[in-house]
Amino acid sequence: MKILLGNFIMIFNKKHPGLICALILLLSGHSYAQQPNKKSGVSFKGGNLDAALSEAKRQHKPVFVDAYAVWCAPCQQLKKTTFQDKTLSAYFNSHFVNLSIDVEKGDGEKFAERYDVNSYPTLLFIDEDGKTITKIEGFVEAKSLLKTATSLK
């Protein structure tokens, strides 16, 4: 069987050079495209604080809020580094309802006023009733943020 298949490929390749390679590349690309896209990092929910608090009550978890501004370089650095840390993201995704909110537009402006957000980034841990547990202002490394999160009870 292997000899017949090998002969077929050789004859076919002489008549249609490169077609076998193209077919193999196409099929391998197809199987690669079928792989699930695993998103890493902290999984932030869309929506607003009210939706996050409702979810927090349902799950009996506190809310973690990343209050940011789009132009803020330390905010962008948090997203690229701290929130991508595997240990931190695994802990946050299982222990908190995570919310990321732009405090310069929409519901974010009301959020900033309610929680006295004046610098960026501001990270807040909020209980399911909306009361601040702890507040961190400025950039923070993953190890330090994880230490704060694990100390909350």
Describe this structure as you would to a colleague.
The chain is 50% helix and 15% strand. It has 7 helices and 4 strands. It has helices at 2-15, 19-33, 49-59, 73-80, 86-95, 107-114, 142-151, and strands at residues 63-68, 97-102, 122-126, 132-137. Strands 2-1-3-4 form a 4-stranded mixed β-sheet, sandwiched between helices. Helix 5 runs parallel beside helix 7 (142-151). The N and C termini lie far apart (67 Å). The relative contact order is 0.15.
If you compute it from the alpha carbons, what radius of gyration comes out, rounded to the nearest whole angstrom?
25 Å
- What gap, in angstroms, lies between the N and C termini? 67 Å
The backbone outline, from C-alpha atoms, is globular
The tally of beta strands, per DSSP, is 4
Largest sheet: 4 strands, mixed
Share in β-strands: 15-25%
Helix content: 40-55%
Quick take:
The chain has 153 residues and is α+β, with helices and mostly antiparallel strands.
List the helices and strands and how they pair.
Layout: H1 2-15, H2 19-33, H3 49-59, E1 63-68, H4 73-80, H5 86-95, E2 97-102, H6 107-114, E3 122-126, E4 132-137, H7 142-151
Label this structure with key terms.
single chain; alpha+beta
